[in-house]
Amino acid sequence: MAAKHSASAQTPAQFAALGLDLGGSSIKYGLVDTSGELVQSTFGQATTPDGAHPDAVAEVMAQILRDLAELTGEDLAGLPAGITVPGIVIDGVVHSAANIDEAWIGLDATALLSKTLDRQVAILNDADAAGMAEVYAGAGASNGEPILGSTMLLTLGTGIGSAFFRDGVLFPNIEFGHLEIDGFNAESKAAARVMREENLSWEQYITRLQRYLSQVEFLCSPDLIIIGGAISEDHEKFLPKLNLRAKLVPAKYHNAAGVLGAAHRAMHLST
Fold first, then answer.
1. What is the DSSP-derived secondary structure letter of residue 219?
2. Could you tell me how far CA 132 lies from the centroid of its own chain?
3. CATH (residue range 12-128+257-267)
4. What PANTHER family does the record point to (predicted)?
5. Contact by Cβ (8 Å): 28, 258
């Protein structure tokens, strides 16, 4: 678990949902209040278990819930959870797995995680969740409404996640991180982790990112591209050096977008 911070004065009724964002290297988490805002004192991350097998991930998520209950001093039983998976998700069943165990493929993740966590859960693609947070309330919104036109969110992390919206409507499970570019899977060359693993300079990474983004723009001509993931916090180091027709902006919620989008989805489970 990440280091804990002092909990704010929240009552159980003020917590509306939990967001859990599964990635290849970490599971980010946090609680949202009834206004839909992330309670910053509850935002953190735990290390993804080696191999990211579904059962092991479920146990880590159960521990996160116990730790959050201790942190807040509240009984979080019954609080709905939105959970992201880096793969295609249809009706709670996972149909692909990126940077996690292949045992996820074909798994009814809703059944597994609702049982392990003992609560209602909503399962969705990780980039779709981040995209919903940004398009409905973040960098893709204006005056509380989605910006009209086509918007692409790309999360650069262990892999590359993608979410596509037209006039605020999500087209789910768009896997633009797996485009083939110059004979390679795009995320094997342009994901943020590659910069660390190959010790690339910013200039070298920008060259790769430009090649990837140019291909994305050629294929779907978005009006707006939002760059998310932890790397978006360093946006001033690379975004101004990229040349695209589309407007290019950093995510408002950075690495917390997936948690926020997942929690918002969970808030509507009973509606």
1. H
2. 10
3. 3.30.420.40
4. POLYPHOSPHATE GLUCOKINASE, ROK (REPRESSOR, ORF, KINASE) FAMILY
5. yes
